[in-house]
């Protein structure tokens, strides 16, 4: 049997260094998890927003088509001019032109969501995201208490690095003695 006498605390500080490294790795994992969940929530909001914009744009296009039809009828009976018809056609074309970029952005966000949750975009079932499904807190704090800041994984990881460095200095001092 072999036993190392730890008279100056070098072995104890070495163990402390290893514990600090483990703490650091755990806090980094937690930070990655929080970052992932934040990205998923942001992507959900973006998808819901694009779906709402597309839905509103499609309703607007439908209304503008109805209005164009009415203006054309008015032109036939003499209640509107050719200029009115052309103006309404231009408005309809402008509104229709906004739809493809919205659909493209929606597809990009859907693919991003698939990647974030670890699936292929083709494997995702068609899901409707609704902004109305979000529930926000009724009361939000005006300031952030320092206790909440101390719970942040990046701050805890920095503290673990500081603890590790302190323990390593202790090991070096013990080895010099």
How does this model look, in words?
With 177 residues, the chain is mainly α. Helices cover 75% and strands 0% of the residues. The chain has four helices and no strands. The chain is rod-shaped.
What would the keywords be for this entry?
177 residues, mainly alpha, 75% helix, rod-shaped
Topology of this protein?
Elements: H1 10-77, H2 82-116, H3 146-150, H4 153-176
Quick overview:
The chain is an all-alpha fold. The chain has helices at residues 10-77, 82-116, 146-150, 153-176.
> How many strands, which pairing sense, and closed or not: the largest β-sheet?
none
Low-confidence runs of at least 5 consecutive residues? none
Give Rg in angstroms. 31 Å
| Order of helical and strand elements | HHHH
Query: How many helices?
Result: 4
What is the percentage of strand-forming residues? under 5%
Gap from first CA to last CA: 25 Å
